[in-house]
């Protein structure tokens, strides 16, 4: 991989981290889901664990379950 590809993957991973944190603050499960995917896929590609890519969606779903909305019912 050349430097441009590595920099692009790092920028994608940073964007995923920002999305995941923002999604947790605003309690948006879908934003957390896509943020974790966007964060993990470039890291796994850089490390060379391409065979672990099918597990990313399961990890992202589990991470999105930690986001709980408060019920408006009293």
From TrEMBL:
Superkingdom assignment: Bacteria
Q: Does the keyword Transmembrane apply?
A: yes
- Please state what the protein is called: DUF2484 domain-containing protein
Q: Which UniProt keywords apply?
A: Membrane, Transmembrane, Transmembrane helix
Which chain regions cross the lipid bilayer?
A: 6-23, 30-50
Q: Organism source for this protein?
A: Paenibacillus silvae
């Amino acid at each position: 991989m050349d430097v441009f590809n590595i920099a692009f993957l790092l920028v994608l991973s940073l964007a995923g981290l920002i999305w995941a944190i923002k999604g947790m603050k605003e309690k948006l499960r879908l934003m957390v889901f896509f943020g974790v995917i966007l964060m993990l896929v470039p890291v796994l590609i850089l490390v060379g664990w391409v065979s672990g890519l099918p597990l990313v969606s399961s990890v992202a779903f589990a991470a999105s379950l930690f986001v709980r909305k408060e019920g408006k019912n009293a």
